[in-house]
């Protein structure tokens, strides 16, 4: 019984303190927004284009970084594949290549048969 009381008291204390912290954060946010709104209105001709430019710059940098990581990953995989270190999914890659080559041979033979039959 005492163990459950301690759990309940701890939960109420933690929940209450988090609720107070949430209320304080909301109050500070409302006050800061009330103070900053006139500044946003005054400086909006400068801030809006600056924010758009910053967003485009950040998007470009993140995209560039992502493509760079992808390129390094692919180049690393290709190096391991060529050097015979058997990277992940190499068997699937080989199987797909064999299936593609087999289909290409079948299509070539079929085309030869059709053109041979049309010529006679």
UniProtKB/TrEMBL annotation:
Protein origin, superkingdom: Eukaryota
Transmembrane region(s): 51-79
Topology with respect to the bilayer: Multi-pass membrane protein
Keywords, alphabetical: Lipid droplet, Membrane, Transmembrane, Transmembrane helix
Short name of one Pfam family: Oleosin
Function: May have a structural role to stabilize the lipid body during desiccation of the seed by preventing coalescence of the oil. Probably interacts with both lipid and phospholipid moieties of lipid bodies. May also provide recognition signals for specific lipase anchorage in lipolysis during seedling growth.
Name of the protein described by the UniProt record: Oleosin
């Amino acid at each position: 019984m005492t163990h459950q009381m301690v759990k309940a008291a701890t939960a109420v204390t933690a929940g209450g303190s988090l609720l107070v912290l949430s209320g304080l954060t909301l109050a500070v946010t409302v006050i800061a927004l009330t103070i900053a709104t006139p500044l946003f209105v005054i400086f909006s001709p400068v801030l809006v284009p600056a924010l758009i430019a910053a967003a485009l710059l950040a998007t470009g940098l993140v995209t560039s970084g992502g493509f760079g990581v992808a390129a390094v990953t692919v180049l690393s995989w290709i190096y391991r594949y060529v050097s015979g270190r058997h990277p992940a999914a190499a068997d699937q890659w080989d199987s797909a290549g064999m299936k593609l080559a087999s289909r290409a041979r079948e299509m070539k033979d079929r085309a030869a048969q059709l053109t041979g039959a049309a010529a006679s």
